[in-house]
Amino acid sequence: xxxxxxxxxxxxxxxxxxxxxxxxxxxxxxxxNLAPLKDFKKNSNVIIEKFDVSNDALTPLLQKHxxxxxxxxxxxxxxxxxxxxxLSDKDIELSYQTNVFGLIKACQSVVPFMLKKGGHIINxxxxxxxQGSVKFxxxxxxxxxxxxxxxxxxxxxxxxxxxxxxxxxxxLGAAQTxxxxxxxxxxxxxxxxxxxxxxxxxxSLNAHQWINGKVIPVSLSTP
Length: 223
Prior knowledge:
By secondary structure, the protein is α/β, with parallel strands linked by helices. The chain contains six helices and seven strands; from the N terminus they run βαββαβαβαβααβ. α1 (12-21) packs across α6.
């Protein structure tokens, strides 16, 4: 059984990932909102902890539950759909705290737990942050933050090249999640949260054998 950390697990893709990966692995499910995760309390493979990626330290939780970590999926994200001139300082700061700074700190925390056995870091990006993809108004902060995640992942893999730790970024296209529905209420995505989570689960378990330091578009549409 692998030790897996999922950051951002209370809904959408993250919650589906917990369900899929906890069948045969130990999963530390982290979220600001624990109520949606109450059903997982019946599963002895799932550990639930309250965690705000924009504010909390991950290392103490890792020390509490695992001696080593095999996989981390940095799935927490904040999508604000507003024109540039309507964005407040709080909108900008919280977007980057959640999508970039918190993710970087989570990677800093988990790497020491992977050094002995190796591991796979999966950072969840977006087609909105994928160079050359179609861009949409209202997503300047979200898309630019995801572009930062993509570049960070490439740099992280290079820093870790002498270890057995692999890092990849999945630039996801539109999936039907609560976050998408809140930002674009009338849009219907071509992929369900479960379908996207199924791909990510398989990728997290297997792809590091062949892929490292890559930003991979995962999309039926653009974005």
